Amino acid sequence: MVIFMTIAQAAQLVLQDAGKAMHIDDIYAEILRRELYTFRAKKPKSVLSNTIRGKSTANSKAVEPVFRLVANNTYELVG
């Protein structure tokens, strides 16, 4: 069965399963390892970083933040 998810959903699943904050590089590697999302961008880590940042408490425009920036390029789940 193939499950389609967004970049944000894939990152959320990785962080949820890890149970701890993770660096963007580690989130990216885990998404690839688990084949949760296929990146087609030239700079996939930048796309991942921008997606997470857009849905984080670091973005004042995020309506319902999912991620929290805890260190340089390191995020955890809100709540």
Cα-atom radius of gyration: 12 Å
Please indicate the count of domains.
1
In whole angstroms, how far apart are the ends?
30 Å
Main-sheet strand order equals 1-3-2
Largest sheet: 3 strands, antiparallel
H/E series, N to C? HEHHEE
Helical element count?
3
Q: Report the average pLDDT across residues.
A: 95
Total strands: the figure is 3
What percent strand?
Answer: 5-15%
Helix coverage percent: 40-55%
Q: Tell me, what's the shape?
A: globular
Task: Please identify the structural class as seen in this structure.
Answer: alpha+beta
Q: Show unreliable segments.
A: none
Any overview of this molecule?
The chain is of the alpha+beta class. The protein has one domain. Helix content is 42%, strand content 14%. The chain has 3 helices and 3 strands; from the N terminus they run αβααββ. It has a 3-stranded antiparallel β-sheet. A hairpin with a 2-residue loop joins strand 2 (67-71) and strand 3. It starts with 6 loop residues before the first helix and ends with a strand.
List its salient traits.
79 residues; 3 helices; globular
Question: Summary?
Answer:
With 79 residues, the protein is α+β, with helices and mostly antiparallel strands.
Secondary structure: elements and pairs:
Layout: H1 7-18, E1 22-23, H2 24-33, H3 44-54, E2 67-71, E3 74-77
Helix pairs in contact: 1-2
